Amino acid sequence: MATSNQTAAGPIKTMRKGELTRAAILDVALQLASRQGLEGLTIGLLADQMKMSKSGVFAHFGSREDLQIEVVKLYHKRFEQEVFYPSIQDPRGLPRLQAMFARWIKRVTVEIDSGCIYISGAVEYDDRPGSIRDQLVGMVRTWQNALHRSVQQSIETGQLRADVDAWQMVYEMYGLILALHHDARFLKIEGSVQRAEAGFERLIAGARNIETPDATKHAAPRRAAR
Question: At what angle do helices 64-79 and 117-125 cross, to 10 degrees?
């Protein structure tokens, strides 16, 4: 019986070790891809960083494209954990929309140094059809749909005007984030975060239903911690 238990425990221990190794590889791969782009991510470079053989890395992913796709999925998962899921704890409507944008800004301030997979991926794969591009497009659209839903809820609760174009608001919010990333990361312009926040506040002010009492005055502060 003891021999049987030891035999049974062996694969379980190996599986857990394999999962931990795979998670560690992905974490390093995400850091590399954030700085050098998904196309800059190679099995050889990752093997050097992990002090592993190329075959050891291949054993966990099978191909470079599989690795790149898993990196995109990991980035999206962390984005949701840091931005989306905490924000949906706020009340539906404008408080939730403001929370989503504030946390988005906060994440971008971190990525000013590390880089954004969504933005760099869009540059790398805008005209390159394939599985990696499909993953990136699907995840960005998922986030845009979440923003659109929050704008729609703000209209339904009467906090934003009924004639507000929800997709136009999403477009302008995205534009603010792209401008922030460009000015802060590429041009190194100080005060870019404050300009993005001011742009969002102006966007909300222009869409607010002035006949409805401000339901957000007791909401959490909008400005992201820096």
Answer: 140
Backbone phi and psi for residue 52, each to the nearest 5 degrees, phi listed first: -125, 165
pTM of this prediction exceeds 0.90: no
**CA-to-CA distance for 96 and 206, rounded, in angstroms?**
18
User: Which residues are paired to 95 by β-bridges?
Assistant: none
Q: What's the chain's length in residues?
A: 226
Report how many helices (DSSP H) and strands (DSSP E) the chain contains, helices first: 10, 0
- How many angstroms separate the CA atoms of 113 and 76, rounded? 18
* Eight-class DSSP state of 63: S
Query: How far is 180 from 138, CA to CA, in rounded Å?
Result: 23
Taking the alpha carbons of 85, 90, 96, 100 in that order, is the dihedral positive or negative? negative
Distance CA 55, CA 182 (A): 38
Reported as a single tens digit per residue, the pLDDT across 71-114 is: 999 999 999 999 999 999 999 999 999 999 999 999 999 888 88
